[in-house]
Amino acid sequence: MPETNARGLDHLVIGVADLDAAGAFYADLGFRVGARNRHPWGTENRIVQFPGAFLELITVGDATLIPPHAPRHFSFGAFVRDALARGEGMSMLVLESRDSQGDAESFRAAGIGDFEPFFFERQARRPDGSEVRVAFSLAFADNAAAPECGFFVCQQLEPQNFWNPAFQQHENGASGLSAVFLVAQQPAAQTAFLNAFSDAES
């Protein structure tokens, strides 16, 4: 592959109505599915991890904790809630970030988002049962041509605690996420945003 400065794939956010049922479904398909994690803004997730990328199965656990959207502040919980109201499935594309603050400024300059980076941390559990800290900083973008799709970048602040080869071994032999396909009635209307969001030249 040619060298590129484009942002790589980090994960896909997949909304589900029943997190345990979705986890069981993916497990039946031969994936190793992580334990339930709870977020302070009302959502809960389970993760299917691959080297360098993952699937995030997510649902609303406590709607009373979801903050509303506010100027320059993107409410992840509100987006998940509203996406699930329309139906289950992939709702957000997440690329990797090395500098979420710089990416937020780039999105602002490109006219594709004016949000403050969002930091959060939680405790994660290793395969041996021990707990470790994981932390992330997110920079959100806004695609006016696809308002029901979510886009953000994720900077891993404790990558050594998050990525774990033991979680990346799947009975079905799956070893990674190779591509994402977005379907649009007018693909050309999406290219300017996607170029700016991915930091790709074309």
What does this entry look like structurally?
With 202 residues, the protein is an alpha+beta fold. 22% of the residues lie in helices and 29% in strands. The chain contains 5 helices and 8 strands; from the N terminus they run βαβββαβαβββαα. The chain has helices at residues 19-28, 76-86, 100-110, 159-162, 191-198; strands at 9-15, 37-38, 43-50, 53-60, 89-96, 118-125, 131-141, 150-156. The protein has an 8-stranded mixed sheet. β2 and β3 (43-50) form a beta hairpin. The longest helix has 11 residues, at 76-86.
Task: Set out the fold topology.
Layout lengths: L8 E7 L3 H10 L8 E2 L4 E8 L2 E8 L15 H11 L2 E8 L3 H11 L7 E8 L5 E11 L8 E7 L2 H4 L28 H8 L4
Parallel strand pairs: 1-4, 5-8
Antiparallel strand pairs: 1-5, 2-3, 3-4, 6-7, 7-8
Features:
globular; eight-stranded mixed beta sheet; 202 residues; 22% helix; 5 helices; alpha+beta
Strand content bin: 25-35%
Describe the global form. Answer: globular
Give the proportion of residues in helices. Answer: 10-25%
Poorly predicted runs:
none
Give the averaged pLDDT, no decimals.
93
The number of distinct helices, counting runs of at least 4 residues, comes to 5
Strand line-up across the major sheet: 2-3-4-1-5-8-7-6
Distance between the termini: 15 Å
State the secondary-structure class: alpha+beta
Q: Give me the count of strands.
A: 8
Radius of gyration: 17 Å
